[in-house]
Amino acid sequence: MANKIDEIDMKIIKLLSQNARMTYKELADKLKTTRQRISRRMNKLEKLGVIQKYTAIPNYEKLGYTYLILGITLRAGSDVDEIIEKLQNIECVKIIQKAIGSHNLVVHIIAPHDMKRIQDIINEISKAIPGIDHMDITFITETTKIEFF
């Protein structure tokens, strides 16, 4: 099994990023190949860690939740990995990303539609991160496009 990612692999990734529920047969039909070849390629992509997860993207608003993003800037010398470990244990934290630029960390949170609860969550996160220099909070009001590839 070659470790090289080729044009067919890239097409598979793009199709799955649009619809992760596509079957091997549907992928094979679209790419004019066989299910067995798709199966082998999928195994390769998963083994290489190119495909990390298959997931659904819920509409948080319809579920009664608020989606917010924290841009966190840390003081120099802060242990980013230690902070990430602490954030991973907070239930409402759904995505943690290391970043370069204005912020060291970008943290995605799903919280109930209750401003007091959101304030409590932000306070909990602030206490969990001893090296915060600055934190920006952005409330996501609508997602108009999600495209991963």
UniProtKB/TrEMBL annotation:
Swiss-Prot/TrEMBL GO biological process terms: response to amino acid
Q: What PROSITE patterns is this protein classified in?
A: HTH_ASNC_2 (PS50956)
Tell me the SMART domains matching this sequence: HTH_ASNC (SM00344)
Top-level lineage group: Archaea
Q: Which Pfam families match?
A: HTH_24 (PF13412)
UniProt keyword Transcription present: yes
A Gene Ontology cellular component where this protein is annotated is: cytosol
Keyword match Protein transport: no
Segments forming domain HTH asnC-type: 5-66
Q: Which GO terms describe its molecular function?
A: sequence-specific DNA binding
- Keywords on this record? DNA-binding, Transcription, Transcription regulation
Q: Which CDD domains match?
A: HTH_ARSR
Q: Which PANTHER family match?
A: LEUCINE-RESPONSIVE REGULATORY PROTEIN, TRANSCRIPTIONAL REGULATOR AZLB
Protein name according to UniProt: Transcriptional regulator
Q: Which organism is it from?
A: Thermococcus gorgonarius
